[in-house]
Design brief:
mainly alpha; 2 helices; elongated
C-alpha cells in the first residue's frame, strides 16, 4: 500500500472517530475530549489535502482500462 492510500485511510478513520468523540465531549461537559474530537476532525480534513503535495515519483504506475481488466465478463 502506498503512502497516499495509507494517509487517506487514516483520514477517513479520523473523520469517522471525530463526530462521536466531539459528541461525547459536548454532552459530557468534558472540554479535553471535545478538543480531541475537534483536532481529529481538523487532522482528518487536512490529510487528503497534504497528499496532493506528497512526492509521487516513487509510486508504481498501474495499467488502467478495459483492455487490462482481468475479470470475467
Amino acid at each position: 500500500m502506498d503512502k497516499k492510500l495509507k494517509a487517506e485511510c487514516l483520514s477517513l478513520l479520523l473523520l469517522f472517530a471525530a463526530f462521536p468523540i466531539t459528541s461525547f465531549g459536548t454532552t459530557g461537559g468534558n472540554r479535553l475530549v471535545w478538543w480531541i474530537g475537534l483536532a481529529s476532525l481538523v487532522a482528518g480534513g487536512l490529510l487528503p489535502v497534504m497528499t496532493r503535495y506528497m512526492d509521487h515519483s516513487t509510486d508504481t504506475i498501474r495499467d488502467v482500462g478495459m483492455e487490462y481488466d482481468d475479470r470475467v465478463s
